Amino acid sequence: MKKLLYAFALAGLLLSCKNTGKPTEEVAEASPLSDFAQNYIKAGGDIRNTESVANFIALTGTSFMPALVNDPMNYEFYKGNKVKAAVNIGVYMADGLYQISLDKDYEGYMSIAAAKQLAIELGIGEVLDEILIGRYAVSENTADTVLAVLKDALLRSETTLTAKNEQEIFAAILVGNYIEKLYHLSATILEYPVDLPEESKMLILRDMLKVTQVELDLLPKAIALVEQYKKQDPAYLLEELKKLNELHIASHISAEEAEKLTPAMVFENEQFAAMYKELKSIRSFIVATE
Fold this sequence. Notes:
Elements: H1 2-20, H2 24-28, H3 32-43, H4 54-59, H5 75-78, H6 82-101, H7 105-121, H8 129-137, H9 143-163, H10 167-190, H11 198-216, H12 219-229, H13 238-251, H14 255-258, H15 263-267, H16 270-287
């Protein structure tokens, strides 16, 4: 049903562009995508905020892409390494929200259950109890409900880990969550799985580009967080994040510039492609099981 509603919404949007003769930007201003993007840009970002972009991704009408989530059974390979376990807690939290937002509830809860198993390894397993118990207590958990519980879980885990002088572990959770959200956004833009003309894709994805830029602008904060709490040199992921930030600076676009982008300027952009390649490399390193 949700996909059908997206199809109707998209059809109405395209028809209104065709029939009214209004510029794309004017039509987009009244869309849920643009409303979300404008509010997101206005609010800015905070690396400590786990605000989900999963519902925003779902608004594009995209199909679920299994390749964008880490196999929940991989959690076994991360046990025994605290930082590796922590960063994949963040990954699994982002994956769970992405899956639930795209109507993959069972798969989403499997991802969160994997995060729970890793949290147990770190002595913070109880912070995820509420959502896993609630999964059986109610007939439907929306992504917003899940997000609210995950936010609380992150807050409680920070309190526990700070008391144990393990802020490095909390930083790893946040960075893992952040990288996975960036990966979901970037892959949706550059590998959008719905068969549409590129002009139509741009109509849908232009606002996602703006939100992705806001997220990428948080890279210096992610780098600062890792540097602040590092207990070893080189710190885990520090050099990789710095390289990604250099690529972002070289390809940065403002919200105003995003309005003028053509399909070729996005889908054939070598700088965007290089940044996406580096992001995928970082993400592959995080979820690697060897």
